[in-house]
């Protein structure tokens, strides 16, 4: 059904068979196919509707990670779609251009649903992104890279929650579901939309021999582009980078040893692993890319939130599988926020295992890390942040638009085994 003036999408969660070359054929889960899902794309101001059909044979849900939208449309554990059922959320996109994503959120089973392949990107555009001179031809010089590590056993994708921290670490890295991935490059500059779609692993992306220009984080553009040798992404985080290529060359994007900061045994968290992520093969003749220009900082001013407006401060302590000493309870509302309020959330992990903290509905700014201003790569809009143990993170956000006293949004660790095992809480906006 197509309502006029509404951008409609359709997603069917289903099981399928994926042939992983050199590994084998395996049962996998996907949206509209055997593995992962289509990239959805919409523009600020547009009304969108998604018809979600569940052919999985198990209850699931679809959450729009990073999206500002009514709680009833959020796709968290309170919006389950039963087997054979259809759920049709709709909302108006009203946030800056950004690289968001979608994935299931069934309480206790999110890790399994994402791990088996249910995930996709949701790209938002706006006037500022349209006016900027950046590589923007999807699939040509604007490439989505969904990075995930998997384990296989005798050719079959192996889902085995063995409880070791911080969850399943695979020895095979897939980009967009592909083993041994490469991309043909036909232009001087390419924009990569990196998504850490893994359930547990944190990556430190780096090219062998050149920096990347970081232009955007989870919720949109940085105030200014930033040359970076390395880009670290914890599960759920995204980054947009622009990379320059020379004619005829082959270069690899790698993941390097990750500084997990204060994690006692980094190897249990995969922190010492180094591996190739994807190879780029540049053509002998590259199409010149226009000199990049970024959206002016003033374009973002309307979305800015100021600390001086904050009227509420909340504390969140993450430890074992609890936040503030409580495991997730679907029937308990942990926090109540008011529409229009600006808040500061002080978030801290007090144990030496990795956690990444994610908040639904909002994009936040990091005010400080350990009392100091965040480094520039963490100064942009974020919805998920890696928490170094025993370090104070102060986050600033404003709750807007959608009051609903009955249906909560979630905040949780995005290491999905932790989330499933209870490291999640619920807030309503009223
Ligand atoms: Cu990406 Cu609550 O999740
Ligand atoms: Cu989310
Ligand atoms: Cu965690």
Automatic annotation (TrEMBL):
The keyword Ribosomal protein does not apply. Residues 22-128, 170-246, 319-430 form the Plastocyanin-like domain. It comes from the Bacteria. Keywords: Metal-binding, Oxidoreductase, Signal. GO terms for molecular function: copper ion binding; oxidoreductase activity. The keyword Metal-binding applies. PANTHER family: BILIRUBIN OXIDASE (PTHR48267:SF1), CUPREDOXIN SUPERFAMILY PROTEIN (PTHR48267). Belongs to the multicopper oxidase family. This is Copper oxidase. It comes from Microbacterium bovistercoris.
């Amino acid at each position: 059904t197509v309502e006029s003036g509404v951008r409609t999408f359709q997603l069917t969660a289903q099981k399928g068979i994926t042939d992983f070359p050199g590994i084998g054929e395996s049962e996998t889960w996907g949206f509209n196919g055997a593995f992962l899902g289509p990239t959805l794309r919409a523009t600020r101001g547009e009304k969108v509707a998604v018809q979600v059909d569940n052919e999985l044979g198990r209850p699931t849900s679809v959450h729009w990670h990073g999206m500002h939208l009514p709680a009833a449309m959020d796709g968290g554990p309170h919006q389950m779609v039963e087997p054979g059922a259809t759920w049709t959320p709709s909302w108006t996109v009203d946030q800056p251009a950004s690289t968001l994503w979608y994935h299931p959120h069934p309480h206790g089973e999110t890790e399994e649903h994402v791990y088996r392949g249910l995930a996709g990107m949701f790209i938002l555009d706006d006037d500022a992104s349209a006016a900027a001179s950046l590589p923007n031809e999807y699939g040509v010089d604007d490439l989505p890279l969904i990075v995930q590590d998997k384990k296989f056993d005798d050719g079959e994708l192996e889902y085995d929650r063995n409880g070791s921290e911080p969850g399943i670490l695979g020895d095979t890295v897939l980009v967009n579901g592909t083993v041994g991935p490469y991309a043909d490059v036909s232009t001087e500059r390419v924009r990569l939309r990196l998504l850490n779609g893994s359930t547990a692993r944190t990556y430190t992306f780096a090219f062998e021999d050149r920096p990347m220009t970081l232009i955007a984080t989870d919720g949109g553009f940085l105030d200014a582009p930033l040359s970076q040798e390395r880009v670290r992404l914890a599960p759920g985080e995204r980054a947009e980078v622009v990379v320059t290529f020379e004619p005829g060359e082959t270069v690899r994007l790698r993941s390097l040893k990750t500084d997990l900061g204060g994690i006692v045994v980094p190897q249990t968290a995969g922190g010492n692993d180094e591996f190739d992520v994807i190879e780029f093969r540049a053509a002998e003749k590259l199409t010149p890319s226009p000199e990049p220009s970024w959206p002016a900082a003033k374009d973002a001013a309307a979305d800015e939130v100021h600390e001086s407006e904050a009227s509420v401060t909340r504390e969140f302590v993450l430890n074992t599988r609890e936040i503030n000493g409580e495991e997730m309870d679907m029937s308990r509302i942990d926090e109540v926020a008011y529409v229009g309020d600006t808040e500061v959330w002080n978030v801290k992990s007090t144990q030496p295992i990795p956690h990444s903290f994610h908040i639904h509905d909002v994009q936040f700014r990091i005010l400080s890390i350990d009392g100091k201003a965040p480094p520039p790569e963490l100064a942009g809009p974020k919805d998920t942040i890696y928490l170094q143990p025993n370090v104070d993170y102060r986050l600033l956000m404003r709750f807007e638009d959608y009051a609903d006293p009955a249906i909560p949004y979630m905040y949780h660790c995005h290491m999905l085994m932790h989330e499933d095992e209870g490291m999640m809480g619920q807030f309503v906006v009223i």
